[in-house]
Amino acid sequence: MTWTAVARKDFEDAIRSRWVAGLSALFVLLVSAAAYLVRPAPGQTISSNQVLNSLVVRDALVTTLVPLIALIVAYNAVVGERESGSLKLLLSLPHSRADVVFGKVLGRSGAIAAPIGVGFLLPAVILLVVPAVNFDVLSYVGYTLLTAILGVVFVSIAVGFSTAASSSRRAIAGAVGTYFLFVPLWGAVRFPLQLYLGMGGGPSWLPLTGQQVLRMLRLINPTGSFKIVSNAFLQGALYTEGSVNMQVSATLMLLVWILVPPLLGLLWFQEADL
């Protein structure tokens, strides 16, 4: 399958980007600093799972910085080659447009997974040498993989924009808009609606309760779905305890975000004039 060749070349091109190197270094430093700062009180111990699930690591770093890095890595994946003219050369080889799109998703996913893996490696060393921290290797590796999946979600969104956009300006506008909607602005949008629905408001024609609407809003945001899955995983309750339906729904929503944006971009791309 020729999409593997596209993915390999795209990964090599993306990993050499100064943006990727700079943001990866920033991610390593910030996660390492967070791992050092989130320490137990004197005479107490904490687990590495508590560190990973802390507001500093999960909210201030993972769900804020990883989407930004992923969008920057991937927003120019297709439209950049389209503007430079190299896309015509690429399609003159035995590659279909679907090969290009999904090869780009895979290549850029590797490019975001690499800095995430490196970003969690140094903090792991710090947590291992801190005597008051009980380090859980399997949970730490699993959380790293879940973080990589979150990165892949935003890579897929960015590649979808890049595939459908006619210019880099439009692609980056879509990526920036997505980031601001799902990361800094989502709480501002959700909070007044939560108050309204919590007080019994809501349109009578909607066949859902206010709480069901709020759960849907939490799931629609990929960072919200990530938090549901990662929280349950670090607590050892994924798909076994707590709100299992929400955990399954969150997992499926992450899968939807990985598959749907590139497919929608491909539908547009199939008819696009290069």
Automatic annotation (TrEMBL):
One cellular component term from this protein's GO annotations in UniProt: plasma membrane
Pfam families: ABC2_membrane_2 (PF12679)
One Gene Ontology term of the molecular function aspect: ABC-type transporter activity
Protein name as it appears in the record: ABC transporter
Lineage: Archaea, Methanobacteriati, Methanobacteriota, Stenosarchaea group, Halobacteria
Membrane-crossing segments per the record: 20-38, 60-79, 112-134, 140-159, 171-189, 248-269
Keywords: Membrane, Transmembrane, Transmembrane helix
